[in-house]
């Protein structure tokens, strides 16, 4: 049972932090109103798209209130997002320097490059985003043999032997009967959910669902109810309600009930409480859709995702979904499960029937990564990477806790959010870290609740201990300088960190 109750922390911010955060947003919002007023009377130049003069009395097409945030808050600090890179997104990368002459409304590249920035922002969990010619030999060969595009759907003429090979490998890796792959991860969710549920069905979705799941759910036409993040009481209450009272007006029973969850949540770093969800879904006879975009390859003793992490039977999950964009350093997604499910989707899913088949080099890259993870390439490199990632995650998280940062999520998760809260600190943090040649991702509203802006670190098996120590050293200094160490918990000493033996025990 202890395995099911992994440590997952969501420490609350001290009161003064919450107050200061609201105050900060309050002040910039006030300034925003003043500047919108100045723009309206023509004292300040307005850079955003505007309605033409002859349409002035129309309902505004561009300048509505929803833009307020972008126009007045985001634009001022926009230099911290969408930074262009000009190298492989490996453990270190190169950034293109840019400057703004008009207060960040537009940017100009200076032509200079900022070299050797440590990359703690890419989803390169297993380090497969690599450009070593020896590693990519099979990918190059495949490209020479099949070309880059297939110019047709799988149903028509785009069905290659390597597609078949990949689907067999994926099913084998996950321990299920069958699988099918798609050229785009986002479309795997948004196009397959409508093929599975429709009107008269009920979707129960975690509140922190990804946009692709939200779009899929909306397109399906099913009724959507949202339960609290990873909260089993909330889920059970809704399931019971749904089974007892049926559809909203007619009270007929729901045709299907589909629970949609993610393996690892990309903004919180939390791991789904899978065993409990499976118990609930069995009790109430609902179906389970599990999106493993961030967990496949990244957790579990042999990288098989959350089912392996919790040691549950993969066949208990009705629809296993995942993407190849993260751990595999490629692109695309898969759906896996029972043969009937996959065969049904092959002929009913829009992304199977109408979308072009996966590009051959991408297919080969995934095959290469999967073979490496499964040891089919005759080396132990795959398992070494999986262990390295687990070790890096534990080490990094433990050190951050010890320094006094508030971090979210499970100890196993390679996604590590550090809470920054105040808008000013978010910006100062990102700029200061880049000055120290560390590329971080900071996220705020609307991707997070307005009071919980954060920096989100993604660890990789390609990070060496030396790189992590460098990042930690700078984090420590920046944390002190910007007063970011909000945690009131005491971690006296980090318990004997994941040296080999500890890791073995835990797996
Ligand atoms: C949970 C989840 N599902 C699906 C996707 C979409 O995958 P892709 O980026 O491969 O289109 C993402 C991507 O960020 C994701 O985080
Ligand atoms: C692709 O080809 C294989 C044989 O190589 C066949 O078994 C499979 O059904 C085909 N798939 C599709 C979607 O046509
Ligand atoms: C309002 C404004 O100019 N904000 C920032 C735009 O970006 C530069 C860095 O490129 C900052 O220094 C500015 O403060
Ligand atoms: C389809 C779905 O689950 N949508 C919900 C996802 O989460 C957001 C934010 O909590 C809700 O507003 C959506 O309704």
From TrEMBL:
Class of the enzyme per the UniProt entry, highest EC level: transferase
Signal peptide stretch: none
Cofactor(s) needed by this chain: pyridoxal 5'-phosphate
InterPro entries found in the cross-reference section: Aminotrans_II_pyridoxalP_BS, Aminotransferase_I/II_large, AON_synthase_class-II, PyrdxlP-dep_Trfase, PyrdxlP-dep_Trfase_major, PyrdxlP-dep_Trfase_small
Topological relation to the membrane, as annotated: Single-pass membrane protein
Location of the Aminotransferase class I/classII large domain: 116-475
Pfam families: Aminotran_1_2
Domain of life of the native organism: Eukaryota
Pathway in which this enzyme or protein is active: Lipid metabolism; sphingolipid metabolism; Sphingolipid metabolism
The entry's keywords: Acyltransferase, Endoplasmic reticulum, Lipid metabolism, Membrane, Pyridoxal phosphate, Sphingolipid metabolism, Transferase, Transmembrane, Transmembrane helix
EC numbers, comma separated: 2.3.1.50
CDD domains (UniProt xref): KBL_like (cd06454)
Gene Ontology CC terms, in alphabetical order: endoplasmic reticulum membrane; serine palmitoyltransferase complex
MF terms in GO: pyridoxal phosphate binding; serine C-palmitoyltransferase activity
Swiss-Prot/TrEMBL GO biological process terms: ceramide biosynthetic process; sphingosine biosynthetic process
Transmembrane segments: 15-34
Subcellular localization(s) per the UniProt record: Endoplasmic reticulum membrane
Record family assignment: Belongs to the class-II pyridoxal-phosphate-dependent aminotransferase family.
Protein name (record): serine C-palmitoyltransferase
